[in-house]
Specification:
DNA polymerase, domain 1, 3-stranded antiparallel β-sheet, 14 helices
Amino acid sequence: MRGSIQKRGRHSWRIKYDIPNTAAGRETRYLTVRGTRRDAERELAKIVTAAHDGTLVEPSRITVADHLHAWLDGAHGLAGKTLERYRQLAEMQIIPHLGTLPLQKLRPAHVDEWHKKLLVAGGRNNRPLSARTVSHCHFVLHRALERAVEIELLARNVAHAISPPKVEAVEIETFKADEIALVLAALKGHALEPIAVLALSTGARRGEILALRHGDLDLTAGTLSIKRSLEQTAAGLKFKKPKTKHGTRTISLPAVAVEALQAHRKRQLEQRLMLGLGKPDAETLVFSTIEGDPINPNGLSREWGAFVRKHKLPKVSFHGLRHSHVSALIAGKVDPLTISRRIGHARVSITMNTYAHLFEQTDTAASDAIEAVLKGRPR
């Protein structure tokens, strides 16, 4: 490969270089660089190295917005709710700031400056965005650019060079051990009782519970199988498979959950017979509307919030029931791998990071115990 540099203005240089072309033998390309001759020499050196390594990409006028739209339109591997959120972040926080830039001219400095703008005035009415939201935006851009590298629109992912803002860990609100008895007492006889008891006793997610069919329950063996989840998107409700292999799992049920489900099944059977719907079969939803349709997940969360306020319970969200379950397991010194498998995390590290503050408390207790042993004062 050959190349040369020619001065074009006071701070402008034109790089001319040839690359092999199967149709024409060789193809001449030009690139303008602003700065010093040294800057132009460095750019030419990068081009030569990329050509030699086979990573030199074809020139393209595709903008960041063009690529984001194309990527999102073809991102069929993403769950509906996830894709919906990615589109929202792209349209509201990425494209307004970076969309008009040619994709191949996007640089780490652009990404860094973009982060700063979002943190200061990236939200609605120019309100600041949280570090967590900016981190989510960065993740979407990173994934989109990674795809551009895969299809050889880019030689490297510039978002990889800039770290997203540091997100401060937020302690998750849960019911304490002495509060759970109050919750169960308030739930007695309420329509939410079997759903909430199941969430507390299994740690299953809201969508996983609402997707359960009677064929997924074995109340004789005291187990339930998680095989799918219900999600709510702009297009409506739909069932989806778990994202990872560990999401598909069988969970053992405590006696209190079995009793709650048996009582719920009896009430459901009576109601269906009264409405002329017949006995529930293996495909019948465990929890549904009177007509047998899936329950709206957001509606369930709102109903739970109203229940908590009415009974003056600690302000724990429905998702907080899952965290309350994990908190109880950690306090009971159940090992992290077992907890991770039970709640369907893809990796134990996710469990450890999410509940780090709780594991730290148990580690302190372990430290105190071993200190007592070492000092000859076993407890």
